[in-house]
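A.,

Following up on our hallway conversation. Structure tokens first:
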């Protein structure tokens, strides 16, 4: 079957999809961590693979950057390809002084400056949150494996370059980090009655000014990726 953005046979995707932003990271995850990965989608170069991890069938496909992009791909996976769980594995910028480069964040909720939720015609503000079963499993596995994780709110922003320089203000309310996709993923999952979780690695800090290179981000997030694969139902 085909949608405007995914061309894959029925049943090509597993019920759980790991979703990095970068297509190259999708390829890296598939080739490095999955057994017998098969390319199931390559429309617009957004690569999707299905393979197995320790006996579990798992897919991985890129989301692209920003809420409009992950909104499209998560919607089509949830509604047309039988996907039940999407676990975002992405990068985030720390806005908490307590987070360092390569720290792992479990996004319990996602604040946003986006109008993405307006489409649902709600009379108030909806709070996009993770699926608790996935979040609980991720936190439990992290404890068992002695992986330090921060659990809390993130900010899903529509802007990478923010002329107002106001992003750090969100930390006044305890928000840990900023990224660009989680709120749309959680909103789509809620509307579809499906499950979603964002597991994020700190790639830079808006507090200290430290940052990682694009290659380091592609290759340096193994702790997050392995945790997500273990969490996958």
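Then the amino acids I'd put at each of the 233 positions:
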């Amino acid at each position: 079957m085909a949608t405007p953005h995914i061309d894959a046979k029925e049943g090509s995707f597993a019920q759980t999809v790991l979703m990095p932003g970068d297509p190259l990271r999708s390829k890296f995850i598939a080739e490095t961590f999955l057994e017998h990965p098969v390319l199931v989608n390559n429309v617009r170069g957004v690569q999707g693979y299905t393979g197995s991890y320790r006996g579990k069938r798992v897919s991985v496909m890129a989301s692209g950057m920003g809420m409009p992009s992950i909104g499209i791909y998560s919607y089509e996976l949830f509604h047309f390809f039988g996907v039940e769980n999407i676990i975002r594995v992405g990068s985030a910028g720390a806005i908490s002084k307590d987070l360092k480069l390569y720290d792992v964040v479990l996004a319990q909720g996602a604040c946003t400056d986006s109008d993405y939720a307006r489409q649902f015609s709600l009379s108030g503000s909806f709070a996009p949150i993770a699926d608790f079963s996935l979040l609980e499993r991720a936190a439990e596995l992290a404890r068992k494996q002695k992986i330090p994780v921060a659990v809390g709110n993130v900010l899903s922003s529509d802007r990478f370059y923010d002329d107002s320089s106001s992003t750090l203000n969100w930390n006044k309310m305890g928000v840990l980090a900023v990224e660009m996709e989680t709120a749309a993923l959680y909103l789509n999952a809620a509307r579809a009655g499906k499950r979603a979780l964002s597991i994020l690695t700190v790639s830079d800090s808006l507090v200290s000014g430290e940052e990682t290179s694009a290659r380091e981000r592609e290759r340096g997030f193994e702790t997050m990726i392995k945790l997500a694969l273990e969490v996958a139902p």
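The chain has six helices and nine strands. Curious whether your intuition agrees with the design.

B.
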